[in-house]
Amino acid sequence: MKTKIMCWICGNYFEVVSLSHLRVHKITFSEYKEKFPHSDTRSDTYREKHRGSLLGRKLSDEFRKRLSEMHKGKIISEETRRRISETQKGRKCTEDRREKLREYYKTHTHPMQGKTHTKESKKKISETGIGRIPWNKGKIWPEHMYPIREKISQKLKGNKLSLETKRKMSESRKGRVLSEITKMKISMSKRGIKKTKEHMRKILESTERSPNKFEIECMNLFEKYNLPLKFVGDFNNKNFFISGKVPDFVSANNKKVIVEVFYEYFKIRQYGSVESYKEDRINTFSKYGWKTLFFTCDEIRKSPEKCIEELKKELI
To answer: What pTM value is reported for the model?
Structure first.
């Protein structure tokens, strides 16, 4: 443990290279650190004494408020931010501190928990972020962080998102158009990645599965309201191959009604637009006297009663 440290200007040893000593040399603290970046300004004994004097000391609410007011509006320079960052690198939390943090967060939740930003607040946040370059842009995870990535991955495995969360995620991405550069980057990042046998098995199962999850959801809904509809979209009934196309549901009574249920995303991808898909189906099925009704996943999930009413008008 160092009890004294040297002033790199005069060569004398002190417990701490103080501001008053630096004034003798007509130099500021920041200039001294810039000139001698690897120099210490405090000895280990001084640090321990200073640390000991502050341990267990609790600040009053009034003093905290004054400190807060003093620092409001202060802008920390990039250089200061960098230096603070450098001093924190490599520091590890002791197990005692971790335990204290765990106990603290059991009773202290995030200040925004249960709250939502106003439209004005969201707009301000959005505007302040315009042009800001993310701190991790172009960076890759260093090797010593791989175990942490693995821990995060293992913790998230098995988490299932609710239908409401999935719907919100879907809504937030609607209308978003990827640039050609982004598409190319995504394509390049996927090249050379080998799929495991398990992954390939799941892909094949999902493509061969009929009815799929959404179709089963629709079947249960139609059954609940006793609608005379039969699922034929599994390609097993040759009677319902109409000009090479297979509908999802057909009426089980004397009405010639076809019901198509779909995800907009896949139809846009396949046909270019939902309108083109509908036009293609209507033109095909109408030749044989069938009337076609269309319902998107969002319509079925958000307003099932409205969809049922529309179906009843045509089927009953």
So the answer is: 0.42
